[in-house]
TrEMBL record:
Organism annotation: Aurantiacibacter zhengii
Tetrahydrofolate dehydrogenase/cyclohydrolase catalytic domain residues: 5-120
Protein name: Bifunctional protein FolD
Domain of life according to the entry: Bacteria
InterPro entries on file: Aminoacid_DH-like_N_sf, NAD(P)-bd_dom_sf, THF_DH/CycHdrlase, THF_DH/CycHdrlase_cat_dom, THF_DH/CycHdrlase_CS, THF_DH/CycHdrlase_NAD-bd_dom
EC numbers on record: 1.5.1.5, 3.5.4.9
Length: 286
């Protein structure tokens, strides 16, 4: 049977370390790291995510501030708020929840956040730093993927990895992180030919296509490690819905290890956001 990689447990371990890092900063005479979350409008899913992020901050001793703005907020007013937060020394991390209302250019807004406070790691400066292996803040989900992988394979040198999906928020940054870790990386996408064969040759499969149960058992070689980033809501039994990953979980029990959905990558994302906030604060203090 494949080992189930317990994202919830690994996220809790990360939180313990983050709390200790916060306490160490405070012991050095610094203020506790501060995260500001901006939510524009009333998207119900975003409200749930923001609430979770704020609660997670409390849990590790990060100060959090929330700016809730009405859906009709102008782009200029949002940019003015971010400008103010960029210059506020008590704010170490800024996160503007997306999606934003249609009249606001999300790319422009995300680029207006200071790269040093961009705890999402979405700013082109941080993307550039990651792709050149020169530090910067790494996006939370890719960071979580690497933590989960390293819990099974501490040294990725020379491993063959396939990253399924080339999105800017998961596929490309994961590929860069794997390259930095000295893995040999293939990135595939919707127009890739021979995906099953590429997977069969890989020691590591990171599935981030958003295609439910795409990866089948016969695509996976014995002893491979699988990180499933996909999460799609599907109709389940008795009129309920169920969450499905990009991997047909029941068919991959000959793998060495696999993440479940839910309970794999998902819980890691907030833990990595907290770690990024502490890193941003430490960098700003230095
Ligand atoms: N909306 C859904 N996930 C995220 C995230 O990780 N960061 C931001 N800013 N918005 C999101």
């Amino acid at each position: 049977m494949a080992e189930i990689i317990d994202g919830r447990a690994i996220a809790r371990q990360m939180d313990v370390k983050t709390r200790a890092d916060v306490e160490a900063l405070v012991a050095e005479g610094h203020p506790a790291p501060g995260l500001t979350v901006i939510l524009v409008g009333e998207d119900p899913a975003s409200e749930v995510y923001v609430r979770r992020k704020i609660k997670a901050c409390e849990n590790v001793g990060i100060r959090s501030t929330e700016h809730r703005l009405p859906a009709e907020t102008s782009q200029d007013d949002l940019l003015a708020l971010i400008d103010r937060l960029n210059r506020d020394d008590d704010v170490h991390g800024i996160l503007c929840q997306v999606p934003l209302p249609g009249h606001i250019d999300a790319r422009l807004v995300l680029r207006s956040i200071s790269p040093d406070k961009d705890v999402d790691g979405f700013h082109p400066v941080n993307v550039g730093r990651l792709s050149t292996g020169t530090g910067g803040i790494v996006p939370c989900t890719p960071l979580g993927v690497m933590e989960l992988l390293r819990s099974v394979i501490p040294d990725l040198t020379g491993k063959s990895a396939v990253v399924i999906g080339k999105s800017n928020i998961v596929g490309k940054p994961v590929a860069n992180l794997l390259l930095d870790a000295e893995a040999t990386v293939t990135v595939t996408h919707i127009n890739t030919h021979g995906l099953p064969e590429i997977c069969r040759q890989s020691d590591i499969i990171v599935a981030a296509a958003g295609a439910p149960e795409l990866v089948r058992g016969h695509w996976v070689k014995d002893g491979a490690v699988i990180i499933d980033v996909g999460i799609t809501r599907m109709p389940g039994e008795h009129g309920k819905t169920r969450l499905v990953g990009d991997v047909k979980f029941d068919e991959v029990q000959h793998a060495r290890a696999v993440t479940p959905v839910p309970g794999g990558v998902g819980p890691m994302t907030i833990a990595c956001l907290l770690a990024n906030t502490v890193q941003a604060a430490r960098n700003l203090f230095e």
